Amino acid sequence: MPDRTYSEAEVAAIFARAAEREQAAHSREPVAGLTLAEVEHAAREAGLDVASVRAAAAEVDARGVRASSRIAVAERWIEGPMAQGAWEDTVASLRREFGTSSSWWEKETSSFGEAEEWTHSAASGVRTTVTLSPREDRTLLRVQKEDAGTDNERVIAHAIAAVFSFPVAMLLGAFVAEVLGMGDAAGIAAVVLVTALGVIGGGSWLTGYVRSRRKRMIGETESLADRIAQHLTDTSPAQVDQEGQTSANSLLDASLLDAPLEAAPASGGARGPNRARS
């Protein structure tokens, strides 16, 4: 329908979609990498166990290390039950790290069954969730970071670029047509050109920025899970009992255990052994 009139939002959407299609047409190249079968073949040649390689590949897939994903998840198992007050200490540490505090209008913690959960939404659009779930004689720690938007970073980036580019292009088009007196055709051409350049250039830059941010988010998720797991492990009842037993054993002087009875110190009168002399 060549005679149809499009709104500003529709024009911006058209330009964004056109730029995306053009960029996709130019980027249809094979992605460098190896399939799982190729990785296994290389592992055999290197003398590695194929079963271990498959297990490692499954762990990588489960961790969600794909930079285009907007959700990063890290899970850790803590042996033994949680110590009393461990969850409260964890929440206090999280509040210090994220600079938050509990309030009546935004509840951070919640419970469902035996599981405990803490959530935080940052101004950047990243939502962090920490969950502790007792499972028999172990505790499952799950840390998740979720970025706002969709999984397709390119769509987000080009849409944002179109929103910011189109108003600038309209002003420039009006300047070309009215101030410079070059006519409506030149003004429309300026609008199309500036919007296209803004969508392609700005969209490409924003795509790289979003991907880099989400890739960094994966590392932050893994690091946070490691630190929380280490804290819970250090304060677990099993670890505390083991350290207490070690400390108690260290108080004993092993050199006296095998010493002859006559070599024991004679001080302490009443506390010394009673002996009958023949």
Q: How would you explain this protein's 3D organization?
A:
The longest helix is centred in the C-terminal third of the chain and has 52 residues. The termini are far apart. 55% of the residues lie in helices and 14% in strands. Among the domains are: 69 residues; 103 residues, Double Stranded RNA Binding Domain. Helix 1 packs across helix 6, helix 2 crosses helix 3 and helix 5 packs antiparallel against helix 6. The protein contains eight helices and five strands. Strands 1-5-4-3-2 form a five-stranded antiparallel β-sheet. It is an alpha+beta fold and 278 residues long.
Question: What is shown here, in short?
Answer:
The chain has 278 residues and is α+β, with helices and mostly antiparallel strands. Helix content is 55%, strand content 14%. A five-stranded antiparallel sheet has the order 1-5-4-3-2.
Write the layout of secondary structure elements.
Blueprint: H1 8-26, H2 36-45, H3 50-63, E1 71-79, H4 86-98, E2 109-112, E3 115-121, E4 127-135, E5 138-146, H5 153-179, H6 183-234, H7 237-250, H8 254-257
Antiparallel strand pairs: 1-5, 2-3, 3-4, 4-5
Helix pairs in contact: 1-5, 1-6, 2-3, 5-6
Structural class: alpha+beta
Which stretches of 5+ consecutive residues score pLDDT under 50?
Answer: 27-32, 64-68, 243-259, 263-278
pLDDT averaged over residues? 74
Roughly what percent helix? 55-70%
Question: What CATH architecture of the domain at 67-150 and 217-235 do you see?
Answer: 2-Layer Sandwich
Distance between the termini: 125 Å
Q: Please state the CA-atom Rg, rounded to the nearest Å.
A: 33 Å
Kindly report the spatial arrangement of strands forming the biggest sheet.
1-5-4-3-2
Q: What is the CATH topology of the domain at 67-150 and 217-235?
A: Double Stranded RNA Binding Domain
Number of strands: 5
The tally of helices reads: 8
N-to-C series of helices and strands:
HHHEHEEEEHHHH
Basic shape? elongated
Largest pleated sheet: 5 strands, antiparallel
**β-sheet strand percentage:** 5-15%
Q: In CATH, what is the class of the domain at 67-150 and 217-235?
A: Alpha Beta
Transmembrane segments: 155-176, 188-210
Keywords: Membrane, Transmembrane, Transmembrane helix
